[in-house]
């Protein structure tokens, strides 16, 4: 299988159970089927320790024409190009039947985006959990069993409930 950008033979790379293909010339990478989703389950730091490390930083983009449409390295049909999301402007090339092509550095950018997104989601989930806990505490304080709790537990709950949020 050859690189859709520079025609160099792609090298098979295994990341745990995922088989992907990397171009040793332009550092682009081919993710067949669900391999991109599997690879993005790893952290940026973990991927730096794999054979995909060269594709994390965009240092070989001058070697290829990024404006040229490219064809699927498996079936030869022209791939569709789309922007990953409104907040992550990476342009991916995809064959709906076989997989996704990422140019040099796009994996790194995608991993950074997903890491930041995960942090924002985690912070939001933590905030929602805290709000739910305080709602439960408020509800508990209105119940008759609230005053049957040990004094130290009551003091802790009250201090938590009354602190600045």
Compile the SSE list and pairings.
Elements: E1 11-15, E2 18-22, E3 29-32, H1 35-39, H2 44-48, E4 80-83, E5 91-95, E6 99-102, H3 106-141, H4 151-162
Q: How is the quaternary structure best described?
A: single chain
Q: Strand tally, please? A: 6
What is the percent of helical residues?
25-40%
Strand content: 15-25%
What's the alpha carbon Rg, rounded to whole Å? 24 Å
Largest sheet: 6 strands, antiparallel
Strand order of the largest sheet: 1-2-3-6-5-4
User: Helical segment tally?
Assistant: 4
Entry keywords:
single chain, 165 residues, alpha+beta, 6-stranded antiparallel sheet, 4 helices, 16% strand, elongated
Report on the architecture of this protein.
The protein has a domain at 11-113. The chain has four helices and six strands, in the order E-E-E-H-H-E-E-E-H-H. It has helices spanning 35-39, 44-48, 106-141, 151-162; strands spanning 11-15, 18-22, 29-32, 80-83, 91-95, 99-102. A six-stranded antiparallel beta sheet has the order 1-2-3-6-5-4. A hairpin with a 2-residue loop joins strand 1 and strand 2. The longest helix is centred in the C-terminal third of the chain and has 36 residues, at 106-141. The model has no long low-confidence stretch (mean pLDDT 83).
């Amino acid at each position: 299988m050859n690189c859709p950008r520079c025609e160099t033979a792609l090298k098979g790379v295994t990341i745990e159970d995922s088989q992907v293909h990397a171009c040793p010339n332009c550092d682009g990478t081919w993710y067949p089927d669900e391999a991109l989703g599997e690879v993005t389950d790893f952290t940026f730091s973990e991927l730096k320790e794999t054979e995909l490390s060269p594709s994390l930083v965009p240092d070989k983009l001058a070697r290829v024409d990024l404006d040229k449409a490219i064809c699927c390295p498996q079936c030869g049909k022209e791939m569709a190009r789309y922007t990953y999301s409104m907040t992550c402007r990476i342009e991916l090339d995809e064959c709906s039947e076989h997989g996704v092509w990422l140019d040099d550095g796009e994996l790194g950018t995608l991993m950074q985006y997903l890491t930041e997104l995960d942090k924002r989601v985690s912070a939001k989930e933590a905030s929602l959990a805290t709000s739910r806990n305080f709602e439960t505490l408020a509800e508990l304080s209105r119940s008759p069993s609230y005053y049957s709790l040990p004094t130290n537990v009551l003091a802790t709950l009250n201090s938590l409930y009354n602190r600045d949020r």
